[in-house]
Structure formats: structure tokens, C-alpha cells
Amino acid sequence: MASICDVCGKGPQFGQNIRHIHSGAWALRAPRTKRRWLPNLQTVRTRINGRPVKLRVCAKCIKAGKVVRVA
């Protein structure tokens, strides 16, 4: 399942981890490993066209009120 928000389309961000301790052979260049940051997705039940639907929405969209939850 894709890690993409159904409302705003926010997806994973890519970057690198950089080690804090880098001495000896790594004196000139700190070792880096690739990693990705995933959005904080929550499953929310909401109404679309009068029918209850489950959406995967990021926490930022929920806090901004872009999605109205259904009981």
C-alpha cells in the first residue's frame, strides 16, 4: 500500500542519515546511509457523496480540518 495522503498527496521524503561520530578512516567524510521519512498517515472514516468511506489521511490534514470524521 502506498504511503500517500488521499487528501493532499503528501508522500515519503528521501534523505540520508549522517553519523555523529566519525573519526579515524572517516576523518574527512562522515558515513551516510540512505533512508526515507514517511508521512504520519491515519485511517479515517468520512462521508463522500453521502456514503461512509475509509481514507488514509496525514495528521496535518486532520488537524487543519480538511477531513470531517464520521462516527
Structure overview:
This protein has a two-stranded antiparallel ribbon with strand order 1-2. It has a two-stranded antiparallel ribbon with strand order 3-4. Helices cover 8% and strands 39% of the residues. The longest helix is centred in the last third of the chain and has 6 residues, at 59-64. The protein has 1 helix and 4 strands; from the N terminus they run E-E-E-E-H. The chain has one helix at residues 59-64; strands at 13-18, 32-37, 41-48, 51-58. It has 71 residues and is mostly beta strands. It has one domain. Strand 3 and strand 4 form a beta hairpin.
Structure at a glance:
It contains 1 helix and 4 strands.
Discrete helix count = 1
Rounded average pLDDT: 90
Distance between the termini: 25 Å
Using only C-alpha atoms, the radius of gyration works out to 19 Å
Please give the order of strands in the largest beta sheet. Answer: 1-2
Structural shape: rod-shaped
The low-confidence runs, each spanning 5 or more residues with pLDDT under 50, are none
Q: Strand-residue fraction?
A: 35-45%
Derived from helix and strand composition plus strand pairing, the structural class reads mainly beta
| Succession of helices and strands | EEEEH
Query: Approximately how much helix is present in the residues?
Result: under 10%
Number of strands: 4
Domain module count: 1
The biggest beta sheet, please?
2 strands, antiparallel
